[in-house]
Structures are given as structure tokens and as C-alpha cells.
Design a protein that fits this description.
IS3 family transposase, RNaseH-like_sf, alpha/beta, Transpos_IS3, InsJ-like_HTH
């Protein structure tokens, strides 16, 4: 399919992203483009400049293919990263090269002939039968005997390997040949294994790759232990480079994963603010966290929980009249849908004449065009905290602190689903049973019900 976007258009899109403060998803959404396609343009531009969008070359030499595969395996690159690095446009080419190499070695990477098939050749003359043993020389018999011994030893070798190492893979062939080199000539073993000499040495190098990183692993372990687990792969890479070690940070990250090393310092928490996006409403609430009746002043925010390296996000909305959580939504990712579903549940609580003031921070969810549209349809007035001032939304921050102190930190959770169910049960308890002194010793629902009955 012919590319429908010109190089000039791609350059404008990339420059819009690089010169702005918004993310790729926002730029792609504004222009009606696919996110993955825009991300590929940016990566091609960063790697190759405007030339990264030139026409794809059609033929690659076996040496180039081998270089691509070696770089991908050595640095642990993904197929997409490798395509960007070597400017390969053909879809699925790298995966196809890998399959060809594993099935037939370097010879399988040779380009196939195209065009008209050659004319059929005359059938070859029958090969003469090998001379009888009595007609062969003593040297020929000894050579044949040596080959038969090497072939017999090679065929028995896979039976001695582990259950996962049996098979006809080129790497396993090379491993079997290497194990027999001290007993038989290499040329005879390669002939018995039908393995090219170049492929054997390449596989031997790959098999020894882990041993090549053994000194580097020891230095990484020493740095990690010296700093008592406080350093992650980025700082360990910096220490290695200061010592004169030219090493890529991705290699350090991969080796640390193999060693089971991970920074013990708590990870950075989720921050909703990610730059200027959309219109920021004024701070109309101004920390007036009281209301004379239901559905007059609402506050909302998003908080994060973590269970076994999995995250869960909670988006509630609170009525400042009685501190009741009138709606909430949980999910594994802080996407806009989390806020949208929460808002729709909260809007179901409104009566026809209710026009609450809805206060938030300046997170991107609340500056999103769809958020403004949903709020405007209900004729709800927006209010936002000042940038970097959490006290402007202290009522919701106080609820998050209570939830984590009274429930999250007092319990152990095996799964995120278990935490998700527990949060729903706690919010029901918080609304219906947990009493508050400022509500005359009543729970939020009891206080609202009693006030409505008296009025």
C-alpha cells in the first residue's frame, strides 16, 4: 500500500510533538492519526533524521542480516527497536530472518533467485559405484573408518544431553560437536552434523555469551551490595562508566534482571499532572470544605495502590455536605475512562435542579476536552486547585489518608482483585457505619437521612 503521508507532513507532526509539552497520544488524537504510527515516525526521526522516511531498500545481504540478528540478540532489543535502529521497513523481515537462520544457518539467509526458472537439465549420469574394499587404498579405508566413528559418536551425543537439549537445532548441533572435538577431527564432526563451519563458530560464540558477561555481572553485584540495594540500573550504569566501563544501560538492566537485582527504594508514585493540556479552571472552592445541603460542593481525585508489583487506581467523588463517597471507580490504569465512569455514576445522584461545584486538581484527566464536555452538559461549575498545592483539595486527600491507614496498611493482599473488592467493602462501611464527630456521632448516610427527614 502506498504511503499516504508525505515526508513534509511527517516532519510537521514530529516537530509539533518535540516542541510541545503534550504526549504522543495527545498529538496523535488531535491529528486523527494512529498512535503507533506517530511513535514510529518520531523514533525514525530521532535515529536517522528526515532521511528516516526515505524509500525502503529491497535487498539485504546475508552479512547485513547477520549483523542485525547479532545486534538484536546481544543487546536484547525488540523487533521494533531493531527495525528503527537499522532502518528496516519490510514488515516481519527480522522475524523471517530469525526463522531462516535457526532452520538452516547462514546459507538460509542467501536471497532466493527470482525470474524465469532455468531450463531443465539433462539427468546426470549415474555415479559410479564405490570401489570394493579390496580396490581402495589403505588411507581411504582409514579415512572412511574415522568418519564412521565420528558420525556414530555424534548420533549418540544428543542422548546424553538434558531433556530440553535434544533436537536438531543448530545451537544444539554446535554444542554436540564442541563436546566431541577432543575425540574426533572437527571437519568430520561438521560433516556428520551437516553444519557449516561458519555457523558452528557463530553458535559457539553465542553459547559463550553468558560467560563473556560473567565479569560484568560480578561488578554489578558488587556495586549493588555496596550501596545496599539503593541503586537501580541507571545509577549502576553511571558508576560503571565512571570507572571506564563502556556499557549500555539496557545491558545492565538485562543482567540485573538475570541476577534478580532490583532497587529497594520505593518507586515513584503516580502523578496526575503531566503538563499543560486544555483549560485550567480557577480555584472557586478556595478551601471552603463545608456545604449547607447535599450536591452543592463535590471534590474528586485519583490515588494509587500497589500489590505485588501490580497497581490499582481509585477515582472517588465526595460530597462535602456529609463527607459521603457518592461514586467511585477502580481500574489497573489511570486512563480517562476511570474518571468518565465515576462521573456518570455520580451524575445519577443529581436531582433536576442540582448544580454542584466540582473541585479537582490540575491533572490531565480534568483538563481533558471530554471531561469538560461531560461537566458542561450537566451545567456543573468547575474548580481547580492551584498548581502544586495539595491543600486546596485537603478534604479528598484526608479521605485517601484514612482509607490507607484504616484499611490498606492494616491488611495483606495477594492479588489486585482482592484489594479491589476490599476497597468497595470499606467505602460501604465508611458511608454507612463509620461515625464522625463533626456529624454529631453519625455516619455520612445516617446524617444525610436524618437531615432529609427533619427537613
Amino acid at each position: 500500500m502506498k504511503n499516504q503521508y508525505s515526508d513534509q507532513f511527517k516532519l510537521q507532526v514530529v516537530q509539533q510533538y518535540l516542541s510541545g509539552d503534550v504526549g504522543l497520544e495527545v498529538v496523535a488524537h488531535q491529528l486523527g492519526l494512529d498512535y503507533s504510527m506517530v511513535r514510529r515516525w518520531v523514533e525514525q526521526y530521532r535515529q536517522h533524521g528526515p532521511l528516516g522516511w526515505r524509500q525502503t531498500r529491497r535487498h539485504y545481504s546475508p552479512a547485513f542480516k547477520r549483523e542485525v540478528l547479532e545486534r538484536r540478540w546481544r543487546d536484547g532489543l525488540s523487533i521494533r527497536q531493531t527495525e528503527i535502529l537499522f532502518d528496516i521497513r519490510a514488515a516481519g523481515a527480522i522475524g523471517r530472518w530469525e526463522r531462516q537462520y535457526h532452520s538452516g544457518g547462514l546459507t538460509a539467509l542467501e536471497p532466493k533467485r527470482t525470474g524465469r526458472r532455468p531450463m531443465p537439465q539433462k539427468p546426470p549420469s549415474p555415479t559410479p559405484e564405490p570401489p570394493a574394499d579390496g580396490e581402495r587404498s589403505h588411507e581411504e579405508l582409514l579415512e572412511e573408518l574415522a568418519y564412521l566413528r565420528a558420525e556414530n559418536a555424534y548420533l549418540k551425543k544428543p542422548r546424553c544431553l538434558g531433556p530440553r537439549e535434544t533436537g536438531d537445532d543448530t545451537g544444539q548441533k554446535a554444542q554436540a560437536v564442541q563436546g566431541l572435538r577432543h575425540e574426533h577431527p572437527l571437519a568430520l564432526l561438521l560433516r556428520a552434523a551437516s553444519l557449516p563451519r561458519s555457523t558452528f563458530y557463530y553458535q559457539l560464540k553465542a553459547l559463550r555469551a553468558d560467560d563473556l558477561y560473567a565479569p560484568l555481572k560480578a561488578r554489578i553485584q558488587a556495586i549493588y551490595d555496596h550501596h545496599k540495594g539503593r541503586y537501580g540500573y541507571r545509577r549502576i550504569t553511571a558508576v560503571l562508566r565512571q570507572a571506564g566501563e563502556a556499557v549500555n544501560h539496557k545491558t545492565v538492566q538485562r543482567l540485573m534482571q538475570q541476577l534478580g537485582l532490583k532497587s529497594r527504594v520505593r518507586p515513584k508514585r503516580y502523578r496526575a499532572y503531566r503538563g499543560v493540556e486544555g483549560y485550567a479552571a480557577p480555584n472557586t472552592l478556595q478551601r471552603r470544605f463545608q456545604a449547607q445541603g447535599p450536591n452543592q460542593r463535590w471534590v474528586t481525585d485519583i490515588t494509587e495502590f500497589k500489590v505485588n508489583d501490580q497497581k490499582l487506581y481509585l477515582s472517588p467523588v465526595m460530597d462535602l455536605y456529609n463527607g459521603e463517597i457518592i461514586a467511585f471507580q477502580t481500574g489497573p490504569r489511570p486512563v480517562f475512562g476511570l474518571v468518565k465512569h465515576m462521573l456518570k455514576s455520580a451524575f445519577d445522584r443529581l436531582r433536576p435542579d442540582d448544580r454542584p461545584l466540582l473541585h479537582t486538581d490540575q491533572g490531565w484527566h480534568y483538563r481533558h476536552p471530554n471531561y469538560r464536555r461531560l461537566v458542561a452538559e450537566k451545567r456543573i461549575l468547575r474548580s481547580m486547585s492551584r498548581k502544586g498545592n495539595c491543600l486546596d483539595n485537603a478534604a479528598m486527600e484526608s479521605f485517601f489518608g484514612t482509607l490507607k491507614a484504616e484499611y490498606f496498611h492494616l491488611n495483606r493482599f495477594d492479588t489486585v482483585e482482592q484489594l479491589q473488592q476490599g476497597i468497595a467493602e470499606y467505602i460501604h462501611y465508611y458511608n454507612h457505619q463509620r461515625i464522625k464527630q463533626r456529624l454529631k456521632g453519625l455516619s455520612p448516610v445516617q446524617y444525610r437521612t436524618q437531615a432529609m427527614a427533619a427537613g
